[in-house]
Amino acid sequence: MVQILAGEKGEGKTKRLIEMANTAIKESDGHVVYIDDDNRHIYDLHYDIRFVEVKEFPIANYRELVGFIYGILSQDSDIEKIFIDGLYKIVNKLNNEDIIKLVAKLKEMSDKYNINFVISANVNPATLPAEISDVLIS
Hints:
The chain is 37% helix and 22% strand. The protein is of the alpha/beta class. The chain has a 6-stranded parallel β-sheet. The radius of gyration is 14 Å and the shape is globular.
């Protein structure tokens, strides 16, 4: 499953994502990963959540993000949920066509490896392509 929590800056997406991750680790038998562009929220997360800061790993496009996620999966086959906070901060270049391709690839990974993805994005949901409307959560 892929879910995108979209909204303008300051709407509480990160707080909600952290709450979702902390709940997931308590209810999950597997591992939970939280990917962020900086480490501001590392102490807000449960200590069992694997925190990955991508500041040291510049990600230029959605393909590199997918490759980065594959690298994480290659090290841990017990991952059940991956949370990505601030998609547009993590990926330097991302247009609507790229979002469609990214969601399609994450759905494929989700089905193959039985992983759920939850992503926050600082973007007005109305500006996102209709092709991904089924993954938007409010």
